[in-house]
Amino acid sequence: MRLESKFKVSRLAKYAIIVYIMISLFYTTSHYFSIHHVQTSPRQQDTTQRVNSLPRYQEPLPNVDKMKQNYNQAEKSKSSQVTWPGSKGSADIHELSTDLIKSKIFSSSMGLDNVTPYYFKASHKMKDQDITLATLVTRNRFRVLSRLASNYKGPISAAIHVLDDDEKTATIKELAKIYSSNPNMQKYVDVHLIIDKFDRQFNMWRNTAKLFTRTDYLMMLDVDFHLCTDFRTTIFGNPKLTKMLKSGKTAIVVPAFEYLEQKDGKDWRTFPTKKSGVIEQVNDLKLNSFHNSWVSGHGATNYSKWYSTDEIYPVTEYEFSYEPYIIYKKEDTPWCDERFIGYGANKAACLYEIFISGVDYWVLPNDFLIHQSHKYANHDRTRERTHNRILYENFRTEVCLRYSRKYVTEGTWYTSAANNMKKVCTDIPKWKYLSGISKEQREADKLAEEAALLA
Q1: How many CA atoms are closer than 13 Å to the CA of 340, on its beta-carbon side?
Q2: pLDDT in tens, 71-128
Q3: 3-class state of residue 37 by DSSP
Q4: DSSP letters along 234-253, please?
Q5: d(Cα 212, Cα 134) in Å, to the nearest integer?
Q6: What whole-number distance in Å separates Cα of residue 156 and Cα of residue 219?
Q7: H or E element: which one contains 156?
Q8: Global confidence as pTM
Q9: Closest CA relative to residue 84, chosen from 95, 73, 76
């Protein structure tokens, strides 16, 4: 009996040891393969490290957690290489790193530490024939962006800049909370996160918002503006306007207004929604054209004509400081020059090159925007404006000469493609002589100008 009991205990001990060994092997194997299940290249490891270095949030944020999980899985599953096929019929593949591609895309900027396209990606299925609001956002405007998403209920491409400082993690955490709290943000807003130490690279941010726009058309918009009318219905409900926009040779201006008293412009719910309301408040000296004290900025929109017409009309008195809010085609239009850092001339330079490239500006007669009043940052902008004024003078000369050579070389100097350039480049000293235009062409232009005066 005792022998039989000892035998049973011995057998149980053996079974226990075997089970223990099997469990140990299982956990060891699982742990090993969870770390080493994919062999990554050094660049892939670098990409994974950058993704894993993004802040993680401790408190429960279910919607954001899900979005972040989807983002991280997508980021890990894709290669950090961009590939091109070889010559026709060849199986050769040429690879370039995405970091190298980004460095070329933003080669004129101050430098890039971290640019993450679609940090949050809108769930709404974008239609090609739609207008994306391409806008720039910093931490103090997160809630304004949320309001814009709820108002527009259409695609928004937001380049969001976060300073790489001690507040970086808190800023991204705040962005995530606001994004998760508004279903319209999650549905319509693509967030492209830019983290670096270089503040106010406005044109670099504009290019980021434009580059990752997922529709055929975009509106270059400051996030502080409230959309008072449905310009998408105006444009796509009018075959003529749709055709003009589709051609890529028309940019549509939506006139901008602001309240003379800052307190009147704080609550967007009190803003007029019809043109008649705007005219009434202009007559009552409550509302006026945006930055009306600086006529060069928006004067070319010709507000006097806007008040009295119901027909779309062209901008005929373009000047180099003009800064309207325009809707235009994404493809085959110039990018913003990223050398402009800080305040002054950055947007004007962008719009100037678009105009010189042969894109005409036309004004919508019944749609409008109103600026939402806010306090401006209390810092000295004088140095930035002085720097950019000098830069802009040189830039205008560069652009005029470059497009002159382009039109002469491609044989379009005497076509409508060069008309806008000829209108605004005449104040550049010795422009025609420096641009490579032949003596015969200069003489022909002179005769044409004299004929126009006689007519």
Answers
A1: 27
A2: 454 454 445 777 777 766 666 778 888 888 888 888 888 876 588 999 999 999 999 9
A3: coil
A4: HHHT-HHHHHHHHTTSEEEE
A5: 9
A6: 9
A7: strand 156-163
A8: 0.79
A9: 95
